[in-house]
Amino acid sequence: MFVDASLLRGWFSLFNIEYFDGGLPEPAFAVGRSRTRLGSLTWRYRRRLLVKSPCDYVIRVSNYYDMDELQFKSVLLHEMIHLYIVSKGLKDTSPHGVLFREKMQSVNADGWRVSVSARMDGVGRAGVAGKKRRRIVLAVSMADGRRMLTVVSPGYVKAIDGVVRRSPDVESSSWYVSYDEYFADFPVVRTPKGRIVTAETYGRLVSSMRAMEVR
Predict the structure, then answer these.
(1) For residues 38 and 118, is the Cβ–Cβ distance under 8 A?
(2) What is the residue-wise DSSP string for the chain?
């Protein structure tokens, strides 16, 4: 599984209400390919008179490792506990001190796997390293405003293109070549079906892929 900023933002909103009474400031979200850290929280300080206060929080999550949804969500919760402590101006005994561990135990009572160290220990790397895979991606804007992405088997591109172009439910469609690991868990289809994504995710991915023509 791979995550993106929009997916992290959605999880954050739910967890903020469930575990932090909606009191956390929403940070920016970023994903990367770090081999040494599964997640991190960064911020800067704003100085007003003689008082410094944290601001501009950023939560980063690594897509380098082969993790499932439970693991990704646990990494996010780890960073949200840090955000809780920092944004509230609380003083812990250490980076993963008494306050962090108390909150961690409370969250884990619901079955999450938040740990003191959100690093690479014990996390597999299957399917991450090595040559990137080339994929043919169909991007579709639906007439009802939804956005769909799908990875298509090369031998079925022309047939699917014909079906999509004739569909009254499709506003526009485009074909691309991508090496983005975002598509690693997409099924390679032989029929016109795909995955609905947010407009933000759709725009980001389409702008980063190389367009191709169907002949």
Answers:
(1) yes
(2) ----HHHHHHHHHHHHHHHHTT-SPP-EEEEE--SSBSEEEEEEEEEETTEEEEEEEEEEEE-SS---HHHHHHHHHHHHHHHHHHHTT---SSTT-HHHHHHHHHHHTTT----S--BSTT---TTTSSSPPPEEEEEEEETTS-EEEEEE-GGGHHHHHHHHHH-TTEEEEEEEEE--GGGGGS-EESSS--EEE-HHHHHHHHHHSEEE---
Q: Which amino acid is at 194?
A: G
Q: In 3D, which of 89, 92, 90 has the Cα closest to residue 51?
A: 89
CB count, 10 Å around CB of 27?
21
pLDDT tens readout for residues 93-128:
998 999 999 999 999 999 999 998 755 555 555 444
Residues 6+ apart with CB under 8 A from 92: 85, 98, 99, 100
Give this prediction's pTM.
0.58
- Across-strand partners of 174? 139
| Sheet containing 28-32: order of strands | 28-32, 51-62, 39-48
Q: Helix 5-20 vs helix 69-87: angle between axes, to the nearest 10 degrees?
A: 60
C-alpha dihedral sign at 64, 157, 174, 140: negative
Query: At which residue do the structure tokens 């040559």 appear?
Result: 131
**How many Å apart are CA 140 and CA 75, to the nearest integer?**
32
68's tokens? 């499932």
Other beta carbons less than 10 A from residue 169's beta carbon: 10
Q: Taking Cα atoms as reference points, which of 90, 92, 20, 85 lies closest to residue 57?
A: 85
